[in-house]
Amino acid sequence: MRAHPLAVLAGRAARREGQARMFFLWLVVVFVLGIWAGSVINYCFYRLPLEKSLFWPGPRCAHCLRPIRWYDNMPLLSYALLRGRCRSCGGRISLRHPVVELLTGLLFVGLFYAEIGHNVLGLPYLQMHRADIAAGNIPAVAWAVFGCHAVLASFLLLTSLCDLDDMAIPLPITLTGTLVGLACSVLFPWPFPDAGQALPPVSGFVPPRLPTGLYPWPVWYPLPSWLPRGSPQLGLATGLAGTLAGMMVIRLVRFTYGMARGIEGLGVGDADLMMMAGAFVGWQPIVLACFVAAFPGLLFGIAQLLRHGNQPLPFGPSLALGVVLTLWLWPLLGDSEALRLVFFDPGFLGSIVGSGVAFLLLAGLLFRFLLGTPPKAESRP
Ligand SMILES: [Zn+2]
Hints:
Elements: H1 5-47, H2 77-81, H3 96-117, H4 124-128, H5 130-134, H6 140-166, H7 171-187, H8 232-261, H9 268-281, H10 283-292, H11 294-308, H12 316-328, H13 330-333, H14 337-344, H15 346-371
Bound molecules: zinc ion.
């Protein structure tokens, strides 16, 4: 006997609703994870710039220095329950605590929704499992993808906060982040999460389209025989190349432009931030991210100019946004023939680097001619 068509439709709708509820439940879980990560970020943010130990002594009130008990240290909840005051002395708890916790929670939710729910990274593996994911059965591999980027996003948020606060990014944070990123690169080598497509042969002038991984592209293509697909050594090479590119690009830009303009451009902390992010994304995206970062940088710069006049501007937040934007735009960017030529053809790569340096020199000289050499500002740490 066949079921009535309306009953079939009703059953389907109910199932879809149940699935949507399951996915929503995961978003709540991710939000709770995020606010906990936010409280860790707060904790590091207050401690590391002062070079205090992370582990001793434990969390304490900024006013009376008495230890904070675990039940008074719950993200968001404790601030609300205590009405923003210390239980022992009644001193104000900085509003920054709940704000950063909420921000990190929302950041995690946004990341999960976009990368796992909607596959903005364009990963073939997630595309294959999209029905499962929509039904709330998140494969372990998807959690690994989310986990890596959640850790990267937390480090980017922490470094951006430090940069906004006193225009400095502590090296212990970026070094730790770099090591974590390199560990990710070894654990999840390109094309992780592998959907098993055949790798395209190299024929003709334009390098072929590659399957996108958590690390969007391998360090080089075609893969050398000693760096086989999915091997830890390919992962490490990809991560190390990203680290190196992150270290060098900002320094090169800064040095070239600064030399022509007669000033120091960007802080050293910015280069450290990109070194860290490079370990998480590989060298091609990190190079591109330096340029993508110019767009949020320009917006922030205009906002700063309107609000505070011509003040030095921390570039860390723009770089962090640049990294995320580049990763999310990768399905579009990686598809472009021009980019594949630039990143996989040594001749093109060399000529782009050469013309970039020439452009920076010209821009620096032009600004120097138009604005003159500014008085020597105090150098940033
Ligand atoms: Zn207190």
